[in-house]
Amino acid sequence: MSDNSTATRKIPADFWFDPLCPWAWMTSRWMLEVEKVRDVEVRWHVMSLAVLNEDRLDELPEEYRDLLENKAWGPVRVVIAAQQKHGDDIVGPLYTALGTRFHNQGEGPTREAIEGALQDVGLPAELAQYADSDAYDTELRASHKEGIDKVGQDVGTPVIAVPGANGEQIAFFGPVVTPAPKGEEAAKLWDGTLLVASIPGFYEIKRTRTAGPDFT
């Protein structure tokens, strides 16, 4: 009997992102490289910086608070609406289209950029109307909560969850890296991620960032 289970043997990596975040964008491009060099399957999920910070807006700088209140809701709402109407498989491609326009092309999270991204992946432009709608906020919050419940509240985006020593999912914030590693460097960072996930009690490695996101 032939073996058709090859895909199921790929290592799952669950990835939670907010399209607005340039650092999540960097990490997501690394994960696409990892898929090329390791037997890994990325499963894409939405989290929301607006939801994450909604109870602490008064503590945030005015500029960041304005970003969260006026620009952060739209993109994640559109991605969730697309997922609900067109299935899980559209989430990754739509994120790539949004991130390319927001970050690489410098368009930012505008309505025009969202509509262009929808067109890029063959979705109806009408989905952009959900940027201003709370119709799928329950599903958005559920997706966000799934990731946060795995990693804890004291994080940002992205969140990744990978198999630990016994196969259970271990979730981390990050890795935060710029530019996105390619080829063997991407593979080494992935191997290291699995390694630290296999160590019981490992929580964090961190240093001060001295460079901004490099989208090249």
TrEMBL record:
It comes from the Bacteria. This is DsbA family protein. It comes from Streptomyces laculatispora.
